[in-house]
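Re: that chain you flagged

S.,

Sorry for the slow reply, it's been a week of failed gels. I finally had a moment to sit down with the sequence you sent. For the record, here it is as I used it:
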Amino acid sequence: MRYLTKSRFKIAMDCQTKLFYTGKRKEYADQSIDDSFLKVLAEGGFQVGELAKCYYPEGIEIEGLDYESTWARTQEELKKENVTLFEAAIKFKNFFVRIDILKKTGNVVELIEVKAKSIDSNTQNNLWQKSKKNQNKLDSKYSKYIYDVAFQTHVLKLAYPHFKVNSFLMCTNKDRLASVDGLNQKFLIKRNSDGRSSVVRIGDTSPTALGDQILIKLDLNEAVFKIHQGLEETEVYGDMKFTEAAEFFADHYARDVKIKTDVSNKCKGCQFSSDNEKLKSGFKECWRESHSLKDEDFEKPFHFDIWRRPKSITKERVFMEEIEMTDFKVIAGDGDGLSWSQRQWLQIEKVKNGDETEYKDQDGINRAFATYKYPLHFIDFETCMTPIPFNKGRRPYEQIAFQFSHHLMYEDGTYEHAGEWIEVTPGKFPNFDFVRALKKQLEKDSGTIFRYSNHENTVLNQIFEQLIESNEPDKADLMTFIKSITYDRDEDWIGPRNMVDLLDIVIKFYFHPSTGGSNSIKYVLPAILKAQGKEGNPYKDLPPVFDQYDRETLDLLSTEDDIQDGGAALIAYRLMQFSVMSDEERRKIKEALLRYCKLDTEAMVGSINI
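Prediction finished late last night. Pasting the structure tokens below so you have them in one place:
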């Protein structure tokens, strides 16, 4: 029997056609990482789920993966007047769900879905869009989680129609402070012999020992009711109501029949896209069926490959070469260099002309660098946010800065790796020592400081807020230092040594077709080397952080919006924090982190030699 589970339902909500391709790794290419241990490290959900269970010490775990046996066990337990179940298995026809927490009191049940998502105390009142025209449209920040709960509630009500179901989403509340130290270290992740992951509780995890609850329940009854009744305004499943869509998906999945949908710019990044000749490509299959494309057509850049693709470009334009200047407004910028729209048209124009050469505004680059002061400093941070705080007084998802690299470049063009810092001791909050070490590196002169993208500025501003609430003896000095090298629009400051964003310089003055429109340093540096007649990619030459997975692949796992290309470092850091490992394993991963972060600042140095 092929069951529509909640994970498959989520896939169908993203793209109905994907439901046909999922779970067929021997037939269709699938670029998603099939390693539950790494996914657990990237998402942090297992630890939050285990913490939630601790708040219900009476709970009974429904263990196992088999559909029938877990469903049979759940049915027996639900015959009790009062019971709390973890991973309750609920089956109805070709629907099957595992519910994180199911608390039954008589015929009233609480369905609780646990997510490693940060919310605040006002989220309950902000689930819906504020538009007067769309009073019944869910805010996109929460909609996918609420649909998930709605699906589970639907299946539970089908299986037990006499139950009164109250639906909740339990998340971390970023307004709440941890009231005990070491909370994060009470839940470590281990890889089991079967390749799956589990959480090991360390020490006393009773509700009293865990201190004040940092998780909060959102009441989703109103939202779920509107979804089930077809009152919530959505385009996700077309003209069907939610319950009709669920039946439609389940039926097609059970019969293994493809649901054909329109292709669009949403297809970019499809995990079923591949050039692997041994496996089929779901992406190519969809586009062949929709536009009668030939194999050679897939060598062309699609319209959605344009950097920050203009919304006015219609779906009738399949390939970038088909786009005309009249399809969107190309407007000159207010300042020096290319505007965004000029850069977009430059990318399109090079494709249309078959031009594979670089664009470089050397005069613009020279004008920019004439304003900078030597020696030039290049810094790169590696950071992480964890749903469960490390220490007493810290909030969920506070920024953790655990590593930086620093390169110096002198006026004669020579450069050196001037310093680095890393702190990976389990359970240690590193931020204030991080700033102290950075201050020591940068206060030796007044040279211009470069970052790549806004991440470093954001991180330092977040640490500034942490310092305000701290009792650090040198907090005033550290805060003054942060203000001197950052800007903050909300607080209206621009430091005298405000870091220069090297990404802005690249966007304004440089472009190479081989980057595919990406401005990630991992693509820009190899493009510059290629234009200079140098072969190779320094990022691909480094050994992997973990066996089997290179950095580029691990970066795809990053779930943090503020981190660009940081998945590998994030996962490595979490691995050292939240899993049991030998000193030798820890040493190797630490060395890999140092190599990769050093390469990032070295790449920044290389990128100014354009």
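What I noticed first: Residues 583-607 form the longest helix (25 residues).

Talk soon,
D.
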